[in-house]
Structures are given as C-alpha cells and as structure tokens.
Design brief:
The protein is of the alpha/beta class and 162 residues long. It is built from three helices and four strands; from the N terminus they run H-H-E-E-E-H-E. It has one domain. It starts with 12 loop residues before the first helix and ends with a strand. Keywords: Membrane, Methylation, Transmembrane, Transmembrane helix.
Length: 162
Amino acid sequence: MGASQIKRRAFTLVEILIVVVILGILAAVVIPQFSDAAETAKASSLVSQLQTVRSQLELYMIQHNGNYPSLGSNWNQLTQTTSVSGATSGSDFGPYLQKSPINPFENSSSVDEGNNALGTAAAGVGWVYNPDNGQIKAVVNASKATTLSLSTEDVATYSSTE
C-alpha cells in the first residue's frame, strides 16, 4: 500500500468549527425559551397559591365572627387550630393551610402586615396583607410582574436595579 492510497477519515478543522457555531446558535435560541418557561411556571404557581390563601382567609373570617386573622411573620392563625377569638390552641377551627405559603419569586413566606394600600412593598418580603379587609398580595419585582403580565390585584411590586 503506497502513501497515495491511504484515505483519511477525519473531520477537518473547518467542519468542526461549523458544527460548534451551529450548536452555539441553537443554544442561544433554546436556552432563553426554557428560562421563560420557568418564570411562567412560577407565575402560575403564585396565582394558584393566592387563590388558595384567599379562599382560606374567607373561611377563617366566616368562622371567626367576621374577623380576618393576624398573619404576623409565621402564619400561625392559618396553620394551627384556633378558637373563635383567634387564639391558637387545640380548638375546633382550622388549620386552614398545611404550611406557610412560599412566594416563588422572593423565596419567602414572610408577611408585611399593615393597613397600607398594598401597591408597593420591600424586596425580600413574600406577601403583603391587610388584616382589616383580608386583602393579600404577593411581592414581585416590578419589571418581572410587567413581563409576566401579573395583575395588580395579585401582586405588590418593588423596583430594583437588577
């Protein structure tokens, strides 16, 4: 067998570079779509949690003579049994939730409780709540809330430089 009869069966550097460029382009197109899907899933989870919490707040109010619970920082009046006065004890009412809901955007179950307008909130807080009327909203970054088309009925926003 002479040197002229040997056939090479390998890729050239140019062919390998073309494949790498094509894979890079595909990754640039596909990865953001997965990221958007994850954010959309978080938004769906958030809205579902809000529906559950709101329905349980209403049930609490009905069973406690028209009074909404004080959530404080630990959600005890919804996660433990309560008396008609709202005292956490081995009473007949509740628990209304198995555990404190965690806001998937802030990764927090903390509650800013007060009589504010519930329009804006501080970063890092999971929820804002008004115990006078039972209104509760999730805390979400303003730009993220806009991007995901979250309703102002469902979210209180904060601005950040992220």
